[in-house]
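Late entry, written up from scratch paper. The run itself happened at the end of the previous shift, but nothing got recorded in the book at the time, so transcribing now.
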Amino acid sequence: MWPAPTSARRGRAPRRALPVGEPSCPPVADWEPQYRLSVIFADLFAILFGVLAVGGFVGGRVDPGGPLVRGVTVVAFLVLVGALMVNRAWNVAVLGQGAEEFRRLGRGFVAAGVVLALGGLLFDIASMRPWVFVVVPATALVAFPLRYALRQGLHRARRDGRCLLPVLAAGSVDTVRDLITRTRGASHLGWRVDAVCTADGLGEGVTELEGVSVVGTLSDLATHARRGGYRIVAVTPDQYWTPKRLQQLAWRLEGSGAEMVVAPVLMEVAGPRLHVDGVLGMPLLRVSAPSFTGVRRVVKDVVDKVGSGLLITLLAPLMLVVALAIAVDSRGPVFYRQRRVGKDGREFTIIKFRTMVTGAHKMVADLAERNEGAGVLFKMRKDPRVTRVGAILRRYSIDELPQLFNVLTGPMSLVGPRPPLPEESARYAPDVRRRLLVKPGLTGLWQVSGRSDLPWEEAVRLDLRYVEDWSLALDAVILWKTFRAVFSGQGAY
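Output as recorded:
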């Protein structure tokens, strides 16, 4: 869909950092402006569809062929475009990754609806209500899927090694290694570490670190960044970095086309908890406490109750068919009940469709040597206790649908950490017990990141990240990604 990667917004072609005197790589195409243009065209198409097709329909019923409809059409188009521009919905820095892109898009449509509503009140245009409550939402319903489709195309290109942002990483060996590992495990984010600078100019293998060339020392970072044409200069923690040195580096990178990104010491704290404030002329990184109460939590509870109720109603026929299949396939109850640990360590009974033979829990000791689970988990890819119908239910997570009743009654949430067994939580280290500060979820970051394929440490890290950085936007992204993870069956067994 898009050409090979580039590094600079201003047209600079990326080059690998090479020793002095060696020629640089030839320029490659700049895909970022093309992707941004695709996003703009998609949004304009959605807006035109909304104001012309939907707006023409609802406006024609109010004032058929009248000049008022034509005037409102033009105004609505300009307001929608202006709202997206004001909310920087087309800023290349947020396109293609994270929830911020969709958050800005949503704020733009909300702002447009508010402006149109206020305009209708100000100029006493009674026919404005259909535009606020029909046209704007209809436009959003077209724009969001188009954005998502474009993002999926970009992610496919990145998995193929295209449309990646060349990164020059600089810091301690351990923190740079961690950055390299994370970028390789999340190609959809679009970062590719091409070169490294360390304090002494050495890596694990003298000239390499995790297979990436070490091209110089931290003091020479700006020089290598300018010569290499990198899109991003990622600064990771190291005792070399003082406020003065970071400021000087930022000055020296001005005009190079490279974006300087500084990783804070608090590597796992992100999202809405981080705020940069200027105090006494100093930039201070303010970390707010995790939010476990308040209005957002009330909204989350309401969404849980309403969402689970609607899903139970919609999926009732499917659950009835599954119950009949389980009853025909093997002897035993249709549902499997098990004690799990929820918020603040309180135990509750989780409900699932039975996928194993009756008495499967008594066979764990005999299968202990074949355990493939990570950490305190017991998992087997080919578990002999799983029934024929159970294997299908597990692959597509259909066995977990009855947990919607746990969400409806309160002990669980639609999104949250995985609910552990009592014997698992009893072995939790103090930091891992922070998973119990929130309600466990039917789905979560672990669900959309590989499920049973994840190492124990990574599953814990994802759950703790959710607990620390929870937001309504993150919940929305996780729910959206859950459908894809369930239909692919990845990591489910």
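The longest strand covers residues 191-198.
(Scratch paper discarded after transcription.)
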